[in-house]
């Protein structure tokens, strides 16, 4: 009986093992299979939710009842009046907004992180205010200022500034408005990146090695914020390409406004343009995401890699 009864040492589980390892193989297979099944169901429902409307829109653009399949809605896009101009205008506005927002937010957040951590709540509240102010109120204030400026500043050099920011070929006033609207998303992305990096230690180490402030910013801080910068650019690009209210009320015609303007006369073409804009946006966002996850190769790492390869000796040399 003593030989058939397991001892306390044999009955106790080994250190480093859990209950899942001691469970029967059939039970382990069931516990592993259930999350995979539910994961597939959730992903399938999410994919159907996004893909079915897109497929229905594509069928609407290429299928004409009684005439069959025709891609005339897509071939007529390049010849459509205002298509190229509005698309290039939206892309230019998006690029300028990304650059302007990052030039405004990155130095401010780094300065607050290094020199004045107590001001972080104030900066956060200021950057989050555009979420509280609706776009219709923002564009009302902008239009009021644009009407007030030429009347009261006609004899000053600022009069030409008010005219320049409203140039129809490239309305810089839209860049300013889009930068304000994108500040909450840019702030959240950059703040998450700065929280994940010990910025004071990196800056102190670089400065002790004799690095200048521009070198510290461009070669030490920004490479560590690559994913955060790509995320901020990602969100800003999506915001600018889909914004309609401010541009429409100010009287400009970027890509989103152009799509709405042709929707009444050319229904199939407007849907085709919407699908094309989605494809262009996805490609640009994919490029930004790839840029944010690309590995960085610094001169020091490359030099150390060459040194390590050169220090290896073959068995014959040893």
- Return Rg in Å: 29 Å
Helix percent reads: over 70%
Biggest beta-sheet profile: 2 strands, antiparallel
Overall mean pLDDT score?
79
Written as H for each helix and E for each strand, in order along the chain, the element string is HHHEEHHHHHHHHHHHHH
**Large-scale geometry:** flat
Per DSSP, the total helix count is: 16
Task: Briefly note the structural class of the backbone.
Answer: mainly alpha
Strand order of the largest sheet: 1-2
Quantity of strands, as a count: 2
Taking pLDDT < 50 over at least 5 consecutive residues as the criterion, the unreliable ranges are: 296-318
Kindly report how far apart the N and C termini lie.
Answer: 62 Å
The percentage of residues in β strands lies in under 5%
Structural description of this entry:
This protein starts with 7 loop residues before the first helix and ends in a 7-residue tail after the last helix. The longest helix is centred in the first third of the chain and has 38 residues, at 25-62. The model is unreliable at 296-318 (pLDDT under 50). The chain is flat. With 318 residues, the chain is mostly helical. The relative contact order is 0.10. Helices cover 75% and strands 1% of the residues. The chain has a two-stranded antiparallel sheet with strand order 1-2. Helix 12 (226-242) packs antiparallel against helix 15 (267-293).
């Amino acid at each position: 009986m003593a030989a058939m009864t397991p001892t306390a040492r044999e009955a106790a589980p080994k250190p480093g093992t859990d209950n899942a390892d001691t469970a029967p193989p059939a039970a382990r297979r069931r516990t592993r299979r259930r999350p995979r099944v539910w994961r597939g169901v959730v992903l399938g429902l999410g994919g159907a939710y996004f893909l079915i409307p897109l497929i229905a829109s594509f069928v609407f653009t290429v299928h004409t009842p009684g005439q069959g399949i025709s891609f005339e809605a897509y071939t007529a896009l390049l010849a459509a009046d205002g298509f190229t101009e509005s698309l290039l205008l939206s892309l230019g506005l998006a690029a300028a907004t990304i650059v302007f927002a990052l030039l405004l937010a990155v130095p401010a957040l780094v300065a607050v992180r290094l020199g004045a951590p107590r001001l972080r709540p104030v900066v956060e509240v200021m950057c989050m205010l555009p979420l509280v102010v609706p776009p219709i109120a923002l564009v009302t204030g902008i239009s009021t200022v644009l009407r007030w400026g030429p009347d009261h500043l006609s004899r000053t050099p600022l009069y030409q500034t008010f005219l320049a920011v409203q140039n129809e070929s490239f309305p810089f006033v839209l860049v300013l408005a889009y930068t304000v609207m994108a500040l909450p998303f840019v702030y959240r992305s950059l703040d998450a990146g700065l929280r994940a990096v010990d910025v004071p230690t990196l800056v102190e180490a670089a400065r002790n090695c004799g690095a200048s402030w521009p070198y510290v910013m461009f070669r030490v801080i920004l490479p560590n914020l690559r994913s955060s910068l790509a995320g901020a650019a990602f969100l800003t690009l999506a915001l600018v390409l889909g914004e309609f209210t401010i541009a429409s009320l100010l009287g400009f015609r970027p890509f989103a406004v152009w799509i709405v303007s042709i929707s009444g006369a050319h229904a199939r073409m407007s849907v085709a343009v919407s699908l094309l804009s989605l494809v262009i946006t996805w490609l640009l966002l994919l490029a930004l995401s790839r840029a944010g996850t690309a590995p960085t190769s610094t001169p020091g790492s490359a030099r150390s890699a060459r040194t390590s390869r050169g220090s290896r000796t073959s068995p014959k040399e040893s």
